[in-house]
Amino acid sequence: MTRLPTRLQNKPAMTPEIDTLVLCPACHHKMRRTEEICPGCGAERLFGPTRAETFLSTGTGLIAAPALSTLLIAPSVWTAGFAAVGALLGFFVAHSRHSGDRWLKHR
Question: Which residues pair with 45 in a beta bridge?
Answer without folding.
Answer: 103
